[in-house]
Amino acid sequence: MTLTGTEAVTTRPAAPVAAVFVRRACAQDAAALHTLSAPFARSGALRERPPELYAADADDFLVVELSDGALAGCLALRDHPRAPLGPSGVLYNFCVAGHSQGRGVGSALLWSALRTAETRALRAVFTATGGGGGLFLKYGFAPFPARFAPPVWANALDPRRGSRVLARAVPPGLD
């Protein structure tokens, strides 16, 4: 699939190397999602969200849970069926606890989100990042014009944050 405005973004990343279990979040995870995300919100890397919003949006989230029950990381995927490029998804609230960084948690979450997007027959996945976006780039994302993203999401981006929009196609058969 070619996304207008950039070269084809159909690379197939390798599966994450670390054996990390990713599961869907539930409303009972709201407090833990808020706690995990709070340092990233304080630093400006994520938007601040109240625990109630995590409970309401729990179905969007994938999480990695440690053996002690603490969350090592999370990533949310929201579907936008009427996006300019057809059914698309938006990844948001991606964070990995400091003690779990570099252990495959982020890769496992991103891989799982892309697999989920494929099973939902999404054509493209978008995200916004204020950082370098290295992991997204590794997984085939590329800078992309916000005008092709789901409008409700693109219009809510805060220009003061200096985020850049990244996108990738969702090819069938990520195996």
TrEMBL record:
CDD domains given in the database record: NAT_SF
Pfam families xrefs: Acetyltransf_1
InterPro entries noted in UniProt: Acyl_CoA_acyltransferase, GNAT_dom
Ranges of residues in domain N-acetyltransferase: 20-158
Ranges annotated as spanning the membrane: none
Keywords: Transferase
PROSITE patterns: GNAT (PS51186)
Superkingdom of origin: Bacteria
This protein's record includes keyword tRNA-binding: no
The UniProt record lists the keyword Transferase: yes
MF (Gene Ontology): acyltransferase activity, transferring groups other than amino-acyl groups
Protein name: Amino-acid N-acetyltransferase
Phylogenetic lineage: Bacteria, Bacillati, Actinomycetota, Actinomycetes, Kitasatosporales
